[in-house]
Specification:
The chain is mainly alpha-helical. Helix content is 64%, strand content 7%. A 1,2-diacyl-sn-glycero-3-phospho-(1'-sn-glycerol) binds at residue 136.
């Protein structure tokens, strides 16, 4: 449908002559909220209050570099100079690149701190989603990550349920477009709820929360990516594929394999809260009491055999 609305100003605030864009501001806010959430949960599970602050110092720059490199590799022809490549004020970041570099950073950080990587990953998974949820609204302000044109019936449905400030920004180059950024943001909220249920109600084996994050985020991303008009593409043999869809399939398959392998080989021998699979923490009174009871039963059985 035809529309005439002007897009919102992408600049959040200007400090002197330096513009601060909504995109960067929302990513920063997402990172700060994610840090607070991860820090509180980390303290509950015995990590120092500065653990995730120190991790963030390394992970955020790594994530930005990874997100930009991933995007530039698939859009190389758009950039004419080094300054064009490093200028991220107007977008051009890919979540899969950010995820890859931040996970690698967290892995080595965990090694240095002698903390289980899976413990860190499980704690951080909901925080990652919080950052992604807010980050998609940066796409909203930049008028990017949109789908194709909507039908007149779809317009009526959107107009009934969405506020005008969202509808106005759906007008891109004179046409109302599917707000795929909104679809992904809402999907991420549902995945966040699932992860919190796993955390507080299920207490699964370590690694399950993080791997479920990868699986369910990728499921949503696969279908939503098919609606977008600004996807990155990769030529695979004679077929041109959307990069995000291919990566999503690999993440889903890889996560399921890792989850099954860790369980079968006994590597996932602790629950999310640190309790060993079986029910008792090492050296706990409950475990000692149970062990003593088993010894007493064994002694009685031996005496019975002697008689």
């Amino acid at each position: 449908m035809y529309c005439t609305q002007e897009p919102y100003d992408r600049v959040f605030i200007e400090i002197g002559s330096l513009p601060i864009y909504w995109y960067g501001f929302l990513i920063m806010m997402g990172a700060l909220i994610a840090l607070v959430v991860a820090t509180q949960e980390g303290k509950r599970l015995g990590l120092h209050k500065d653990f995730f602050v120190d991790l963030l110092i390394f992970a955020v720059p790594a994530a930005i570099v990874g997100a930009r490199l991933y995007y530039v590799v698939f859009e190389w022809e758009r950039y004419n100079s080094l300054m064009d490549i490093i200028d991220i004020r107007e977008g051009g970041l890919a979540i899969h690149g950010a995820l890859l570099f931040s996970v690698i950073t967290a892995y080595f950080y965990a090694k240095v701190k002698e903390v289980s990587f899976w413990k860190i990953a499980d704690i951080a998974a909901p925080s990652l989603l919080i950052g992604q949820i807010l980050g998609r609204w940066g796409n909203f302000m930049n008028q990017e990550a949109y789908g194709g044109p909507i039908s007149e019936q779809a317009y009526q449905n959107f107009h009934q349920y969405l506020p005008n400030w969202i509808m106005n920004q759906m007008c891109v180059d004179g046409t109302y477009m599917h707000p795929t950024f909104l679809y992904e943001s809402m999907w991420n909220v549902l995945v966040l709820v699932l992860l919190l249920i796993l955390r507080y109600k299920v207490n699964p084996r370590r690694g399950v929360i993080f791997l479920n994050y990868l699986i369910w985020y990728s499921v949503g991303r696969f279908f939503i990516e098919g609606m977008r008009t600004d996807s990155l593409y990769i030529d695979l043999f004679v077929v041109e594929l959307r990069t995000a869809q291919l990566v999503s399939i690999l993440l889903i398959a890889g996560s399921l394999i890792v989850m099954f392998y860790r369980k079968q080989k006994g590597y996932a021998d602790e629950l999310y809260d640190g309790t060993p699979v079986g029910g008792y923490k090492k050296g706990s009174p409950s475990k000692n009491k149970k062990a003593n009871q088993q010894k007493n039963v064994k002694k009685k059985n031996q005496k019975g055999k002697k008689k």
